[in-house]
Amino acid sequence: MWLSSRSYPKLSKQKREREREREMMKKVVLIAATLLALASASKAADLKEFRVGILGGENEPDRLRNFACLADHLKQYFGFEKVALYPAADYDGVIQGLLGGTLDYAELGASGYAAIYLKNPNAVTPFLTYQQTDGSTGYYSIGLARKDSGIKTIMDAKGKKLGYADPDSTSGYLVPFTQIPKATGMPNDKFFASTQFNGGHENNILAMYDGKVDVSVDGSSGIGDFKDGYSSDTFHKMVSKGSVDPSQLVEVWRSPLIPNGPLVVRSALGEEWKKKLTDFFLALPKSDAKCFNAIAGGDFNGYVPVTPDFYRTVIDIRKQTIGG
Prior knowledge:
Elements (H helix, E strand, L loop, with lengths): L12 H33 L3 E6 L5 H19 L3 E6 L3 H9 L5 E3 L2 H10 L4 E9 L5 E9 L14 E4 L5 H15 L3 H4 L2 E4 L3 H9 L5 E6 L13 H7 L8 E6 L3 E2 L2 E5 L3 H18 L1 H8 L3 E6 L6 H10 L3
Parallel strand pairs: 1-2, 1-3, 6-7, 6-8
Antiparallel strand pairs: 3-11, 4-11, 4-12, 5-8, 5-9, 5-10
Helix pairs in contact: 2-10, 3-4, 4-11, 9-10
Protein name: Phosphonate transport system substrate-binding protein
Organism: Rhizobium miluonense
InterPro entries: PhnD, Phosphnate-bd
């Protein structure tokens, strides 16, 4: 509470006038902020179009096909006039869309969320994440190489080429950038002959598969059989559609467990929309398991609630290493 001039009986008349002016200005600002919040809430309540950002990493036709059922369900469930899907060319496209308020919802990796949080902690609100079939809420970054490369462990890759996925990817950059050196004892740019970004997870795996790099890093549940590309993520998707033959590949490195990325909603939409979307997504695995599996990209139990604190470690690591 702002103190009134009566709290300062010894102030001069001029000073008391200044105090009253400051108090009045604070009231004006408070009223303006309240009106703005009410206008924003009213606009959110009358939401006609819902804009969904889809991270880069997989080719665009597959992303649009996998998310088409989600758009249909959102439109029917909430009565939106339109649900627009925006498959960004890279992770940063979705990050900038959420920061700029041109997207309402997206599924992010932990590092992508950290990038937004470090620029504006109030831009989006994480509300759910995926739960693996073993009950965990984490996954791994794995290093893949061709069997015929002769690379069996990450130490065999010294002097070779390392492929990253995207600068804002958790498993495709942030984690291998910070964790592989703990296994090799050297920074990646010293241990490897070269490192390069290959434009997303799918392109990164293909770069390794085609011999353009020797090791590529990707996210994986680490659960299930290697011959299936494990149970989820890009490697799994590529094995499922026949893009790569896992019998020609070997896992040469695995990170510590990484927090699964969050589903986020634009914070300006308010708590009511966060609650509505939470209820909708929690019901989705049972209401349409096929659609859930399509957007999840593999085999999961469902969703569990999360808060920003769940990503504190990743936020801190990103801040200390690559910044916002």
